Amino acid sequence: MSDGLLVLLASLALMFTTAAEPAAAQGPEAAQVKACATHATSFTADSGDGGPVTLRMGCAQDAGALRPLAKSDDDLVMSFDFHVPERRQQARDLARTLVEETRADQRAGMSLAESFTKRAQRDSVGVYPPQGGGPDFDGQVHAVDDSMVLIAPAGGIGTAANWWQKWIAAGVSLGITIASSAVCLLAFNVGAPAAAPVCGAVGGALGALVGELMNAYFDGRSLGDAEVWKEALAVAMWGAVGGAFAGQLMNWAAAGTTSLITRIQVSLRHFATRIKAFGDVLTFMAGSMEGMGPKLLEALERLRGIGGTATPLRVMVVGDSMSQGDEGDWTWRYRLWQWFRSQHVDVDFVGPYKGTKNHPDPVGPPVPPLQGEPARPSVENPPVSGRYAAGVDEGFDSDHFAVWGRQAAQDKKLIGSMVTQYRPDLLLVGLGFNDMGWFVSGAQGTLDSVKTLVDNARAAKPDLRFAVANVPQRSAIGGREDLPVTTAAYNDMLAKAIPSWSTLTSPAELVDWAGAYDCAPKACPAAYDGLHPNALGEFQIARAFEQTLHRHFGIGRFVPDAPRTAPARQTPAVSRLVAEAVPSGIKVTWQPVFGAHGYTVRSRIAGSAVWSELPVATNRFDTTWTMDGWKWEYQVRTDNGDDGTSAWSPTVSAVADPRTAAPPERIVTRATATGVDVSWDAPKGPYTDTIDRYEIILWDKDTPGAFFQSTAVKGRSAHVDGLEPGHHYLVAVVTWNRAGGGMPGVARSVTVGAGTPPTPTDLKARAVDATTVQLDWKGSKEAAGYRVWVRNATEDGAFTSDEYVTDDTGRGIAFLFPGYWNFEFCVTAINGAAESGRSNCVSLPGPPPSDPNTGGGPPPSDPNTGGGPPPSDPNTGGGPPPSDPNTGGGPPPSGGGVSPSTASPASTASILQKGAAELDAALRDARRARSTAGDLTAVPAG
Predict the structure, then answer these.
(1) Gap between the Cα atoms of 121 and 130, Å rounded
(2) Mean pLDDT of all residues in the chain?
(3) Range scoring the smallest mean pLDDT among 100-104, 160-164, 406-410, 765-769
(4) 728-737 and 740-746 as β-strands: parallel, antiparallel, unpaired?
(5) What is the pLDDT of residue 240?
(6) Dihedral angle computed from the Cα positions of residues 749, 755, 759 and 761, in that order, rounded to the nearest 10 degrees
(7) Contact 723, 676 (CB under 8 A)
(8) DSSP 3-state of 115
(9) Gap between the Cα atoms of 232 and 207, Å rounded
(10) Residues 893-925: pLDDT tens digits?
């Protein structure tokens, strides 16, 4: 800040201190001065030598002909008198229009200060953007002959310096607005169509500039210089006029800017003599405007290159879910559109889509496609009919090219036709997350895809401009420690590469989305789910684009800070919850909640104390893997992630009566070099007469975050290729009939690319109690699992094994009656149907010493069960529980059987219930993730 400005600010502070000092402290004579007379001027009308607008201000008792407008002699009266005789009637009309708009605001409940602030914010040129709050004032505004008169009631006149600052700055701004508009009209024939919009833009910009400069001085803020002012004026005028009258604006600027600026300088100097406490401020402004006319014309000429001279700026947003938005979102596109409007930039968003992502229809589980059939269109018919938040302006221009789940690898092939069809001037690109998140490509591959997208778009329109965003981080996902590293590497590569992507006619600039978006692996307050923006995050993303557009393309007058708070998302409870038995199992439905990101459903078999919870995207939930007669209970709540959840609904229930077929029998798996061969026998029993297909389900146990994948065939065998060599895969087969998919038959797992695994070694046994041992051994990476073989050595029996296969190199064997010392154990390794020879066999020495209280040997029978061991508890397990892909436990036996060595026959139904519920939850969650095909909201750890 210059020494002159420092002296000016110091003198202003002194003047304000004097003005605000209580009258009693200034002596008896000063005590008689009324508040309305603090900055009083003469009420003698000016002859017009003060420029196009002059000022009179003081107490109503001194206001002469204006006295009847006030209620009290002590009311404050401020009159702006207009002297543009060639356009006298138009000046009067301008004043009357402004007065009526202000009165309409007051009728709507605004104070006079609030109405003036609203106008200032609308017309702001961005030198010192007006903010709400601060001292308030009310009063009246009148249009009287050639004057606009403001009146503040005596009781509302403030004594503080900032009250006078706001009152005088608001008044001077309005006076300059009307005067500038009237002088501008001199360049047009009366009634010319372009006169009103062009001169309205000119007057609004000049009035706003003067008001902002006065407030900036008063608040001790930097003003920039005349170069900054004329650029701000040019952008404001150009944006306010729009494409239709851009040519007429340029014609006026060529002929009328110098005359207008000169006449406004005269009025500012006049104001300086009338409001002596503010004289230095106004004189400084008048002097700084010297020679601004030609410079303003030059600035307007430069703006011809942005969006064309007579058409709006055409903008296409190219992105994924974070740009499209979910139903009920405001979206950052809307916040950017609001910014364009506030900057008076005439913009036309273009693209093939209008809506957010609509939620899927509430239908039952989809029939799996047959091998060779596409699972779903990859880029066709995306869900783009979702509505926006209830508060979004009806005029929002929502056209876009952003789709949930979209990758740069996909859009690089589509962008050429989009640019050819919609002819954007500016492409805003926000892609790359899904490429890296879904393992489509690494950092370099993603960069290559984005560069190809830019090249293909430019080939369709050589003068296209690009604002290309980097990729934000997201909250940490278990098993995806690679993602933050890959994202950071890509962002670094993009920042280094993008300067070389520009051409003379087609610049490309970086948008720092990652830097503006408050999201990181440790915490992500800008998102509702660790990635997708909440209402606050939408502002942050929009601001990142605004900064690039303003700094590098000269668009807009200023970029406001992102707000610290944003509208809360409504999260009402669900209603009309119904559960009913259907042929596929049980269907649960409820009334959809607008704006819900999703729902959480919890279910349990009646009598269980434990709920199983699952997120769902739509207002339907299906339990498909269930036995006849099982009673299920359900509760549902609206789930908006970190934006909040509703209360749980009341419980509803239904008894399953499925019409699905049993799982296939004798499922056999054989690993191949890059896949697996699966065969089976047809099931027997009810409902097998309508079998349509068999679904083969695979799960890669070795890939963190892997989802289940499936395909289907009509026959009783299938080959599935394209699997990862060396990885271990769970394999299951489901029978589909007219009712739907039945219970799964879980087959032996396979290790792709491996043959018969090596025999396990170093088998050891350890006694847990008299009837339980723990076995441990050394396995191999080729093995997909292990089977335990047992024989009664005392009776010289043969080795036998159940079909239970464990992934671990250890297993507990229970219920060894009359005692573990009677048994011998071996282990084999399996890879599908391929099985190794038996390992070294082990046994433990004879029984422990006799207990004098029991007589030795095994423990006595349980009087509550009538002898023998107690039945297995399905919640604690006698041996490993059924398969749970989230914990890596072993799979349940094929067809639902249970190993005699791990549970008594009495507990078979309970274990089937537990296993079906867990496997049902895991596999349906995977199906849902595939069918919605959204962005990487959260990759499960397994």
Answers:
(1) 6
(2) 84
(3) 160-164
(4) antiparallel
(5) 73
(6) -80
(7) yes
(8) helix
(9) 12
(10) 333 222 323 322 223 333 334 334 445 544 444
Between CA 303 and CA 240 the distance in angstroms is 13
The DSSP-derived string for 433-450 is: HHHHHTTS--HHHHHHHH
Give me the pLDDT at residue 415, please.
98
Query: Which distant-in-sequence residues (6+ apart) come within 8 Å of 100 by Cβ?
Result: none
Q: How many CB atoms lie within 10 A of CB 561?
A: 8
Q: What is the pLDDT of residues 74-121, one digit of tens each?
A: 999 999 999 999 999 999 999 999 999 999 999 999 999 889 988 888
**Residue for token pair 């060894």:** 816
**φ/ψ bin of 888: left (φ > 0), alpha (ψ from -120 to 50), beta (otherwise):** left
How far is it, in rounded angstroms, from Cα 539 to Cα 482?
A: 28
Checking if the pLDDT of 530 tops 90, the result is yes
CA proximity to 923, closest of 715, 741, 779: 741
Position 304 scores a pLDDT of: 56
Residue owning tokens 């329109």: 461
Instruction: Look up residue 771 and give its two tokens.
Output: 């009837």
Q: How much is the average pLDDT of 503-510?
A: 90
Task: Please tell me the predicted confidence (pLDDT) of residue 27.
Answer: 37
> What is the Cα–Cα distance from 730 to 699, expressed in whole angstroms?
5
Q: Sort 88 into a burial class: Cβ within 10 Å, 0-12 / 13-18 / 19+.
A: middle
Cα dihedral 517, 520, 525, 529 sign: positive
Find out whether 617 and 598 touch, Cβ atoms under 8 Å: yes
Pairing mode, strands 313-319 and 347-349: parallel
702-722 mean pLDDT: 91
For 701, residues 6+ apart whose C-beta sits below 8 A from its C-beta are 727, 728, 729, 730, 749, 807, 885, 888, 942
Residue in 129, 99, 128, 130 with CA at minimum distance from that of residue 112: 99
Q: How far apart are CA 933 and CA 403, in angstroms?
A: 11
The DSSP annotation for 793-837 comes to TTTTPPPB--S--BSSSEEEE---SS-GGGEEEEEEEEETTEEPP
* Beta pairing class for 761-769 and 772-778: antiparallel
Which residues does 935 contact at the CB level (< 8 Å), separation at least 6? 320, 321, 322, 404, 405, 433, 434, 437, 531, 532
Q: For residue 398, which amino acid is it?
A: S
Band (41; pLDDT cuts 50, 70, 90): confident
The DSSP symbol for 423 reads -
Both tokens assigned to 313:
């700026």
Q: Which pLDDT belongs to residue 573? A: 97
Q: How far apart are CA 217 and CA 279, in angstroms?
A: 12
Average pLDDT over residues 792-820: 93
* Burial (CB count <10 Å: 0-12, 13-18, 19+), residue 252: buried
